Amino acid sequence: LITDANRLVSSVGLARSEAVKHGRTATVCVSSDQATCTGETDWTLGWMVWVDVNRNAVLDAGEERGFVGAFPGNSVTFTSGASQIQFTSQGAATAAAASC
């Protein structure tokens, strides 16, 4: 359980770090295929980290994903009111993150 929680927390930290490093919005979002954001609020499905290079709020071709993860065998259940957590280029969480 601790390992699974740390994996998600590390992804959130990576997103914040990448946002500051690249000077762009970075997102951690629920993703069942680790290629697209699903809009779901069940983080048990998995997640991915990506930097929005062209600032259109969509993961496009050429925008590389960072870490992708999932809870192996759905060992835990984690749902929240948010389907994503975003960080600004200054490292501040957006309003979407506040509902987590």
Distance between the amino and carboxyl termini: 19 Å
* Spatial strand sequence of the major β-sheet: 3-2-1-4
Low-confidence stretches: none
Q: Strand-residue fraction?
A: 15-25%
The dominant shape is globular
Helix content: 25-40%
What is the number of helical segments per DSSP (H or I, 4+ residues)? 2
Pairing-aware structural class of the strands and helices? alpha+beta
Radius of gyration: 12 Å
Report the biggest beta sheet as strand number plus sense, adding barrel if it closes. Answer: 4 strands, antiparallel
What would you say this structure looks like, in words?
The chain is an alpha+beta fold and 100 residues long. Helix content is 25%, strand content 19%. It is built from two helices and four strands. It has a four-stranded antiparallel beta sheet with strand order 3-2-1-4. The chain is globular, with a radius of gyration of 12 Å. The two termini are 19 Å apart.
